[in-house]
Amino acid sequence: MTDSSGETERYRQGLQTRRSVLGDAHVDGALARETPFDRPFQQLITEGAWGTLWSRPGWTKRERSIVTIALLAALGHHEEVAMHVRATARTGATMDDICEALMHVAVYAGVPAANHAFKIAKAVYAEMDANTEDGGDKK
């Protein structure tokens, strides 16, 4: 169902879930960069990935986070790996969880894919730790 703004309930749910996983700053930035050209794509991922998949019952955000990072690493989507590792501060996935997921990537998708993902995750965790030490909150 669409409201007077043209937003569907699935879109609103997706935006709420997306914000809970990636944070307001990330989502606000993505929305600010949205243009008429990529608006349909942004709507698709907000409704499909966030409003449908990430909002489904049955798995926690932690579990979805672990699986997502493993899949992104296996497919070599490095920027997305970094983004989702940052999101672990909100999803509850631990460094140990991500280590285990990347060990699976090494066996099932290849050592080079896992090696690069470990490199990315280490850099992101170091950045998050530095932010915390500087008075930030890892979010």
From TrEMBL:
SUPFAM superfamilies: AhpD-like. InterPro entries: 4CMD/NDH-1_regulator, AhpD-like, CMD-like, Decarb_PcaC. It comes from the Bacteria. Residues 41-123 form the Carboxymuconolactone decarboxylase-like domain. NCBIfam families: decarb_PcaC. This is 4-carboxymuconolactone decarboxylase. The lineage of its organism: Bacteria, Pseudomonadati, Pseudomonadota, Alphaproteobacteria, Hyphomicrobiales.
